[in-house]
Design goal:
Chain A has about 280 residues and is of the alpha/beta class. Chain A has helices at about 65-75, 90-95, 115-125, 130-145, 160-170, 190-205, 215-225, 255-275, and strands at about 25-35, 40-50, 55-60, 80-85, 100-105, 175-180, 210-215, 225-230, 235-240. A six-stranded mixed sheet of chain A has the order 5-6-7-3-8-9, with helices on both faces. Chain B is mainly α and about 425 residues long. Chain B is globular, with a radius of gyration of 27 Å. Classes of the chains: A alpha/beta (about 280), B mainly alpha (about 425).
Chain lengths: ~280, ~425
């Protein structure tokens, strides 16, 4: 289904009234059958609403089901029970409508494509005309400050740069929702802090809703409006911490006493979640 | 920016050799000097001999010019002079390459293997030209070849795949000649060194290639074999293309249907256990004479590796790469052409290289029951009938058959290199 340049190729979700949540989760459970009689409850009784233009982090120790929850929203997994709506639609409908962009733990760039071609991948699949694809890729690479690397191959870039390309690719078709699954987990502390700044800068330009999975307290606090704290086995939401830090957030934010207070708040909540 | 530089630095992997020991430095130098002395003295010896010396008359170029002189009624002495010059030039080229190797060992050790490669090639060529009749000279060539192999072994510098392959071929040539010598020394006690399955010298095989196929015939054996190879190769190419397409189609089908994979793959395996010699006559009688059944048999030997490797390759993408496609709600064709097939290409090319040589073997086997008289199979049959009197002809046919397979393999490898240019270099 090719579309010419004049008509928008993606069926955009209807304009949201401020009150309508982008993601609405009610009583969602996910149970993995691991063969035989055994089964693992990955997430249990999740209730969460995320509004338009919010930046929400899911945080918790390994195995708390935060990635599972993100994959449920993305329709990469199907809930065992409960109701889940993305942009007011069932997740499958939202996925087919290309309502979200997903950034994985690994950059998942295709080796045989140049950086620019990687950014164009979703646009090719969605039937954008070639000229618009190229222009869009240039724009996106400019956004992540990699405009000079369009002709490079992914394996010629560092890990942080690769992940920036992955972000450019996820945003290329202007999805109203960005889902990020520990995107900076594999990076060193310094690169990660720099990438946090970059991400906020990009978000400042593009807007939209971001759901961000991480196991770094500092990262979650620095980035988010709200931090959703989860407990392991079975994974459930134990607390939602509002982060009142002003925006724009800068390197100085990390030295702000309010930042430390928020970090402590999240840490306490995590300890409570563990029951320790 | 900094992280790019760091990446490039680690990519460069320090391959510079550390401080080498004295033996590492002087041993290859000494060996190379030995090679140089041999090559230079051979050149001098050839230039100093009269034109009727057996070392010249019995040599490959000597025999060739005698045939030319006989056919065109020319003065053999003048032509033998040209042959002598040709031999001397070969010796000088070997000497020149050895000198380059020497210089490289002295100044740029990391390039020495590349330079010595040409010296090795030079002595290989001499082995194909210097006759056993020139007793001592033949032994000198063997000695130089052994020295060259030893030098390449101890010399510093990287080893490319082509160099490694060539070293093995040269070592086989040397081992072959040494084995014959051992057989003669023990009075033919070793297998294949006495009548009727006597191994010929490589110089005799090269000479036979540059002699008429029949006594005083109009055409050189190499020309006849090249034509036969061309006929067989064309059949093999058709079989290769058909077999590869079938293999790709089956592999793609199996990758998408577990049911078909489970139920049909065992039969694809079974098809390869059926002796092709047994079913080839049936295929020929079903399809009639001509090149079609030959190509079919060739395809039969081609499709299986492609099927298996296509299947493996299409299933090779990681779950996350597939999730990415799912997150775009990508239709199946996009997943296949934009992810699975590009990911499968390295696997498919591995299979294609195996199949390229397999298709040539298949074509030769297919030619036998279809009684084609102009392909390599006929040439091999004719030559093996006369093995006791002319063993060189069979080996010449074998050399041509493997050359056809090798060139086909090389063509696919070249294609692969072109297609895979943009991929990260892998270690294999």
């Amino acid at each position: 289904m090719r579309v010419d340049a004049s008509t928008p190729p993606i069926p955009k979700s209807d304009a949201q009234t401020p009150a309508a949540p982008v993601v609405s989760i009610r009583g969602v459970n996910k149970i993995f059958e691991t063969g035989g009689s055994e089964s693992v409850v990955a997430v249990q009784d999740i209730n969460l609403e995320i509004g338009a233009n919010e930046f929400v982090s899911l945080i918790g120790p390994s195995g708390c089901g935060k990635s599972t929850l993100l994959r449920l929203i993305a329709d990469l997994l199907t809930p065992t029970s409960g109701q889940l709506l993305v942009n007011g639609k069932p997740p499958r409908q939202a996925r087919l409508g290309r309502d979200y962009g997903f950034v994985f733990q690994a950059a998942t760039l295709y080796d045989w494509r140049t950086v620019s071609q990687n950014v164009q991948l979703p646009l090719e699949i969605m039937g954008y005309p070639p000229a618009r694809r190229a222009a869009r890729a240039r724009e996106m690479l400019q956004l992540v400050e990699l405009e000079k690397f369009g002709r490079h191959y992914p394996w010629q870039l560092s890990g942080g740069m690769q992940q920036r390309v992955a972000i450019a690719r996820a945003l290329a078709f202007e999805p109203p929702l960005l889902l990020m699954d520990e995107p900076f987990g594999a990076l060193d502390e310094f690169t990660r802090e720099r990438m946090n700044m970059e991400l906020l800068k990009i978000w400042g330009k593009t807007g939209g809703t971001v759901i961000f999975v991480t196991h770094s307290i500092a990262e979650a606090v620095f980035l988010s409006n709200r931090v959703v704290v989860m407990s392991p086995r079975p994974g459930r939401i134990t607390k939602v911490v509002d982060i009142g830090l002003p925006r724009p957030r800068t390197f100085e934010t990390r030295e702000d006493p309010r930042f430390f207070a928020a970090v402590t708040d999240v840490r306490e909540s995590l300890r409570e979640a563990y029951g320790a | 920016m900094l992280d790019v530089e760091a990446r490039e630095l680690t990519g460069l992997e320090a391959t510079r050799p550390g401080r080498e020991s004295a033996s590492q430095r002087w041993l290859p130098l000494a060996l190379t000097v030995g090679m140089l002395v041999i090559a230079a003295s051979l050149a001098g010896a050839y230039l100093a001999r009269p034109v009727d010396d057996p070392a010249l008359v019995e040599s490959t170029p000597g025999q060739l010019v005698l045939w030319i002189a006989g056919r065109r009624q020319l003065n053999p002495e003048a032509l033998l002079g040209d042959a002598r010059l040709a031999l001397a030039i070969m010796c000088l080229l070997a000497a020149g390459a050895t000198t380059l190797g020497l210089a490289a060992l002295w100044r740029r050790p990391e390039h020495s293997r590349r330079a010595l490669f040409w010296a090795l090639a030079g002595f290989d060529i001499l082995l194909l030209n210097v006759p056993v009749a020139a007793r001592g000279w033949y032994w000198l060539v063997l000695a130089a070849l052994a020295l060259a192999l030893l030098t390449l072994f101890v010399a510093p510098g990287p080893v490319s795949r082509a160099l490694g392959t060539f070293i093995v071929i040269s070592a086989l040539l040397l081992g072959w000649e040494v084995y014959i010598a051992l057989g003669q020394a023990t009075g033919g006690a070793l297998p294949l060194t006495d009548f009727p399955w006597k191994m010929p010298h490589w110089q005799a095989i090269a000479e036979q290639l540059l002699q008429p196929a029949r006594r005083n015939g109009p055409e050189l054996l190499v020309g006849i074999l090249a034509k036969a190879g061309w006929v067989t190769w064309r059949e093999a190419v058709v079989g290769f293309l058909a077999g590869s397409l079938l293999g790709f189609a089956l592999g793609t089908l199996f990758a998408h249907s577990r049911l078909l994979e489970r139920s049909l793959l065992p039969y694809a395996v079974a098809s390869q256990t059926v002796p092709i010699l047994a079913i080839a006559p049936m295929i020929v009688s079903a399809l009639g004479a001509g090149w079609v059944p030959v190509a079919v048999i060739s395809a039969y030997l081609t499709f299986f590796p492609v099927t298996v490797n296509t299947l493996r390759g299409l299933l090779s993408p990681e779950p996350m790469a597939l999730d990415l496609m799912r997150s775009y709600a990508a239709p199946p064709w996009a997943v296949l052409w934009k992810l699975r097939v590009p990911a499968a290409l390295p696997y498919i090319f591995t299979a294609l290289k195996v199949s390229a040589t397999g298709s040539v073997v298949g074509a030769i086997v297919g030619e036998l029951p279809s009684s084609r008289s102009d392909g390599l199979a006929a040439a091999i049959l004719r030559a093996s009938g006369n093995y006791a009197s002319e063993p060189e002809k069979l080996w010449a046919a074998i050399v041509m058959a493997s050359l056809v397979g090798l060139l086909f393999f090389a063509a696919i490898a070249l294609l692969e290199r072109g297609v895979m240019r943009s991929r990260p270099a892998d270690e294999s």
